[in-house]
Every structure is written in structure tokens, then in C-alpha cells.
User: Fold this.
Amino acid sequence: MIKQSFHKCEKEHGIYVRKNDKEDMIILCLYADDLLITGSNPLAIEKFKERLKLEFEMTDLGLLSYFLGMEFKKVKELMIMHQQKYTTDLLKRF
Assistant:
């Protein structure tokens, strides 16, 4: 990630951030083999993902819906995080 001009977050070891002069930002969340990429410029994110695909075998799963046990739903401009499936499964089990 250092070669790609990312800086490792001091507070959270799996977070990397790249910010350029135009105030475009890409945030990369990495945990084992799970990867979440977000940022302020969709075109810059797509270019970065294409560079990653040249170096690593990876699959783009599209819009965020599930990450590290958390579910996500896009509503208008918001991203809502919830655990509806986990809660439903828990209620069915007990």
C-alpha cells in the first residue's frame, strides 16, 4: 500500500488512506482476505481497483452489502449499517 501512496492509520491497523492535492480520498479497510474500498471520487476508486486486479486475484462484489458480519443498505445518500440477519437467526435459534 505504501507504493500506492497510502498511509497506514495509527489508531486502526487495518485502515489505509490516500489523499491527493485535489482533496480526493480513498479509504481502504483490510481484514484478512476481506477488502473494502471507499472514497470521495468514484473514478479514482475504479482506477485503483483496476491496478489492484493486475497484481492480485480479486472479485469486485459491487455495492457494499455485507462486511465483517455487518450488513449495509443504501438509502438515498445514506449507508445504513445493521445486523438484521444476525438478529433474526438468533431469534430463530433461541
Remarks:
- Strands lie at 7-8, 15-19, 25-31, 34-39, 66-67, 70-75, 78-82.
- Residues 1-62 form one domain.
- Residues 42-55 form the longest helix (14 residues).
- The mean pLDDT is 90.
